[in-house]
Design a protein that fits this description.
Elements (H helix, E strand, L loop, with lengths): L2 H23 L8 H12 L10 H17 L7 H17 L4 H29 L15 H18 L3 H26 L5 H16 L6 H15 L7 H12 L3 H12 L5 H10 L1
Helix pairs in contact: 1-2, 1-3, 3-4, 3-5, 4-5, 5-7, 5-8, 6-11, 7-8, 8-9, 8-10, 10-12, 11-12
């Protein structure tokens, strides 16, 4: 490698390391690092670095750092150029390494992140139209079987009536590839014996999100798969991600459809009820 190439890489490493540090210590300052991220992208694009098969770990580190920055900016209009660059790099990496877990996970996160704008609007619409859902009393969920049947039926009718609208169509279009990539990532991680609670949590979130924007005739299968992933989390020794993972998935749930399904399965002891009730009541 020539000297100029090496100097570019050193500068890129330093910039990405600073982005990681900022995201951990002062994430509200992300706007000050956008220029650095774009400089890293420009520098990487004019070098053969991403084509080096011996630099996979560092390639992943750089892509993940820039993608985290793009995710952080999401609520402020996002950094579409940075997010798009990361997506292209993940696809290139996956082309050369089809079973790479980080690339599969990164692509799943990229598509899940792109769906958040539409999911947020759907959630607000669902919340504003919700009525009759049993409210917690003194921190305890009062939710009878008749409440469950009524709310599930009402949610299905209301949601199915909106499934052809733009937000639902856009969300499904982005969540379908997210689910596919996460499913492949979980499968690859199981085969390589490196399955983690964090990956399972993300996969469950994608499945519940897709279930919330799918027809009632098919969404229960998606919710089933999400709960299966969450149950696997409890089987990982020393992994405490179940509480975080369910909280994350419930934040993406667009109201009563997933909530009613989950409560039904906590009653059946598929998952431990105390942990789940907290997130349902906090919602």
């Amino acid at each position: 490698m020539d000297r100029e190439f090496q100097e570019r890489l050193v500068t890129c490493r330093t910039s990405v390391a600073r982005i990681y540090s900022m995201l951990q210590t002062s994430p509200d300052e992300w706007e000050s690092y956008v220029g650095s991220a774009r400089s890293v992208m420009a520098s990487i694009d004019v070098t053969p670095f991403m084509a080096d098969p011996n630099k996979i770990e560092e390639q992943i580190w750089i892509i993940e750092g820039l993608q985290k920055l793009a995710f952080r900016a999401q609520g402020s209009g996002g950094l579409s150029d940075v997010a798009d660059w990361c997506l292209r790099q993940w696809l290139s990496l996956l082309h050369n390494h089809p079973e790479n877990i980080d690339a599969l996970k990164g692509l799943g996160q990229a598509w899940l992140s792109r769906a958040q704008t539409y999911l947020g609007r759907i959630h607000r619409e669902d919340s504003s139209s919700s009525s009759g859902f049993s409210q917690p009393h003194n921190g305890v969920v009062v939710y009878t079987s008749s409440d469950e049947e009524r709310d599930a039926a009402a949610a299905a009718v209301e949601a199915d009536a909106r499934l052809h609208t733009a937000d639902y169509v856009e969300a499904r279009g982005m969540l379908l590839p997210a689910v596919e990539y996460f499913q492949r990532a979980v499968r690859a991680a199981e085969l390589q014996r490196v399955l983690s609670g964090d990956l399972l949590a993300l996969a469950a979130e994608a499945y519940i999100s897709l279930g919330n924007v799918s027809y009632s005739t098919t969404n229960e299968q998606l919710f089933h798969q999400a709960l299966e992933y969450l149950r696997k989390t409890t089987q990982i020794p020393g992994d405490r991600d179940l509480r975080r993972s369910f909280g994350s998935t419930m934040q993406q749930a667009t109201g009563r459809r997933a909530s009613a399904f989950v409560l039904r399965y906590t009653e059946a002891k598929v998952l431990p009820r105390p942990r789940l009730v907290k997130y349902v009541t906090d919602g």
